[in-house]
């Protein structure tokens, strides 16, 4: 279902988290659960993947992750502020060490001059680490953008573990 290179990357991540005794959760909007889907495609992933939040609508972001309505109103769903609130909300609601959140415009519609198709905001929250946000401007069709998001999310999960070991 997923490209071999992405699956291999996910397997390495799961191995590293299992070795560290870490659990993770995802908070996904534009990916619609693809990050959790890839991870749970791998046998034994239940030792690492605790849960995934798919919060495609603003209401879901508020209800499931506690994203403040004011944050959504002031910055829009595709913003670093919302990605941060999603990640921190998931971390507060799940017994895990790390969360990656993703919100963006996968297209082909929905883009604006300020937030074009391919604009994706990510946040990584982890126990004992400062929340980290990044913005990517991805290209390709909807499927390519969403798969690129999955790859970035895996990198952010790996970075959380690396950063925690460095502290």
UniProtKB/TrEMBL annotation:
Spans traversing the lipid bilayer: none
Superkingdom, taxonomy of origin: Bacteria
All copies of domain CinA C-terminal, residue ranges: 9-160
Entries under NCBIfam families matching the protein: PncC_domain
Name of one Pfam family that matches: CinA
Gene3D superfamilies reported in the protein's UniProt record: CinA-like
Protein name: CinA family protein
